[in-house]
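seq as requested:
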Amino acid sequence: MITAASVREYKPRAMKYEVTCDALPGFVLRVLPSGKKVALIRYRVDGKDHRVKIGLLGPALSIDEARRRAAVMLADVAAAESDDEPATMPVSRGLARLKQVEPAPAKLVPLRELAERFVRTYVDVYLKPGTAERYRHQLETIILPGLADEKKDVPPLGDRDYRTIKRSDVQELHGTMKATPGAANNMVMVIASLYARIIEDWQLAPDMRNPAHGCRLFPIPKRERFLTPEERRRLQTVIETGLKIPAGRRGHLKIQSVWALGLLALTGRRRDEILTLTWPMIDWQHSMMNLPDTKGGQLKVPVSGRVLALLRHIHEQAGRPRAGYVLCTDKGTRLTGINGTWYRIRKAADLMDVRLHDLRHSFASDALMSGVPLATVGKLLGHKHARSTERYAHLANDVVRQGLEQATDRIVEASTPIAALPPAPFAAMTSKQWKAIAAIVESTRGTCGGPRTDLRLTVDGIRWVLHHGAKWRELPAKYGKATTVWRWYERWCGDGTWQQIAAALALAPIEIGREPGRRPVGAKSRRCAPIDVDAVETSAPM
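struct tokens:
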């Protein structure tokens, strides 16, 4: 028997095909390559096959109504055969009887009923908890009660039959939410997903057009808000003040919410990733957070020492729990009141335009401005695709542009005659700079020269020659013998050590790759190995 359930199982093929009904011989369902399904009857008179179309299955014609009409028409066919009437008579008689019989009214199926099925069978099963919560909120507070008008006796969308909702209704509901364009666009996406289940998955109205398709959405400009150092200080001041206020008094801040904000700012994670963080997800040994359910899937995120210190502090204050949420209420349940705390903090700091998600943007901004490569920032943020990180590309370009300006200035200075422009004074390395390269330099000790060589002076001697563009024999005696300094430079250029030193000191390319003048007297005739300036990355100013 052809039923509503079996109709949904018949999928389109490359060629049309027909399915016969065992319970009603002569009743046929034709499935077209387009996916449309046509009901018809088939009978045989005088050795010839006859087919009469009943109609296209859809909102106006259900399978039950098509079967009823087929029974009427086939009954007239049988009566005509017993009366020896012409072959054309059964069809015309059957069609006449169909006009006399009042069709059964289609059952009213309110949209609210299908929305409940949508949440039960799709939203709660296939969507992530955070996304499912947003879907339910959209349905319960916006979509189902939408467009209700008591004065005009217009019922809400949830009480209307799902087949009567048109694109104009969705567009009208979308227009009422112009104050929140992002939420309005998300509402249309929820309706589109709901009707995709109704039309495609459940096959309740296969010929119906999705009312959300073709709706015009609000343009949402990409928002890039980053906190400045001064704004960070204002937030910190408000937080420190709020923690000192006793509980129950106005302005008091809960320590759990402050911890949450600290983890968001120091890790660049999303809100739900921090609020759902549990202690078993913390890999103390490898300084990692194992996040099983992020927007990009399962993710392992490295964390800094400061983050580990904050987590240890939270762990001690919580009584060293073995499991459960890192941030939780007194009852051990998930922390949910962070949005209210964040609102009070930014209001007190006069930063109402800063969203909670902007802490993530600020993390990316600080990393890029510190010289971290764009690809690395994408991995830290957990971006699945590189295009997600490209929104921060202009920040990375700012770092490159800064280095370009420095290099251009040095090139201009080097191209100007000494008589016209005196050279800039040479500055020896600071203790901080020497500390940055000491390990690199000392690791090469023993390859050439004696153990008594002061390699700090050697590096400064090389920098002096490169800075002044002088000949090696002009090297001041305080840096050591010119031949010794030159041999170290030759050796370091050949094995790549000088590139590492230059990267640590952030030397400009014009100084790094510039070959000094003549070799000192008595030195062997061996040219410096060329230096790959592209491999040198700027990490700190000189």
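The first strand starts at residue 17 and ends at 20.
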